[in-house]
Amino acid sequence: MTTADEQALTRLVRAHGTSRKLAERAQLILLAAGGTGVREIARRLGVWPKTVRHWLCRWRAADEAAPVAQRLADAPRPGAPATFTPEQICAIVALACEQPSEESQLPLSHWSRSELARCAVERGIVESVSESSVGRFFKRSRPSAPSRARLAHVQARS
């Protein structure tokens, strides 16, 4: 390990803005470079020895020219890429904030999911979107209400 790598790893471990996992991985590499065994590192950090071996392997296999944080970053997750961009979702949410009769010429007082989906396609926000996807956009962005127990606790204190 180079002195520059060691200094960068130490900065990552000590920095307050470093994510816990990244700091843990940096600490793991530093301990291994100091001659600590896999099982001892796992015990000190509270992780499985398999995890220690995995990150040591990833560290050794990574390009040495790459930044330290990039070498310790998570690998991309498998799965399909997102279908809708955040901008498209925001535009659909903004569309829902309009009165349906203003722009869309609909005889409605409130939007339905199917009408929002149809109008989003008509306005060119998206090529296609299902009404269930529109419903998920709103379900994800809805602020959660405090529980009744939490409300009762707050009322009891006042």
How many β-strand stretches?
A: 0
DSSP helix fraction? 55-70%
Mean pLDDT, all residues? 85
**What's the story with the biggest beta sheet?**
none
Q: What structural category do the secondary elements indicate?
A: mainly alpha
Shape: elongated
The total of helices stands at 10
Low-confidence runs = none
H/E topology pattern: HHHHHHHHHH
Query: What is the domain tally?
Result: 2
Rg, rounded, reads: 25 Å
Termini Cα gap: 59 Å
Q: In what range is the share of β-strand residues?
A: under 5%
Question: What would your notes on this structure say?
Answer:
The protein is mainly α. The protein has 2 domains: 3-71; 86-141. Helix content is 62%, strand content 0%. The protein has 10 helices and no strands. It has helices at 3-14, 20-33, 38-45, 49-61, 68-71, 86-97, 100-103, 113-122, 131-141, 148-157. α2 (20-33) packs antiparallel against α3, α3 crosses α4 and α8 (113-122) crosses α9 (131-141). The longest helix is centred in the N-terminal third of the chain and has 14 residues, at 20-33. The protein is elongated and about 75 Å long. The termini are far apart.
Main attributes?
158 residues, mainly alpha, 10 helices, 0% strand
Topology:
Elements: H1 3-14, H2 20-33, H3 38-45, H4 49-61, H5 68-71, H6 86-97, H7 100-103, H8 113-122, H9 131-141, H10 148-157
Helix pairs in contact: 1-2, 2-3, 2-4, 3-4, 6-8, 8-9
Concise summary:
The protein has 158 residues and is an all-alpha fold. The protein has helices spanning 3-14, 20-33, 38-45, 49-61, 68-71, 86-97, 100-103, 113-122, 131-141, 148-157. The chain folds into two domains: 3-71; 86-141.
